[in-house]
Write a structure and sequence with these properties.
single chain, alpha+beta, three-stranded antiparallel sheet
Length: 82
């Protein structure tokens, strides 16, 4: 695990397109701002674990609905008598 020290308004880059900014520090709580492409799901760990449990139980919503991304386009229908 990489451990970094940052102050408020400082950022960390992950790859070329994910930026994590320290927005606020109050007592033992740190507020993070995460700027990532819509194709990268971002969840708090407890939410991610719940999604994984739901998937394992077969009760999960489609992944795109879970992360707020628009649903993929529907596949074109094929005529039955072609």
């Amino acid at each position: 695990m990489l451990v970094l020290s940052r102050q408020r308004d400082q950022s960390i880059m992950i790859g070329d397109n994910i930026e994590i900014t320290i927005v606020d520090i109050r007592g033992d709580k740190v507020r993070l701002g995460i700027n990532a492409p819509n194709t990268v799901p971002v969840h708090r760990k407890e939410v991610y674990q719940a999604i994984q449990r739901d998937r394992a139980n077969g009760t999960a919503k489609p992944a795109d609905a879970a992360n707020g991304a628009p649903p993929p386009p529907a596949e074109p229908s094929t005529p039955a008598n072609s």
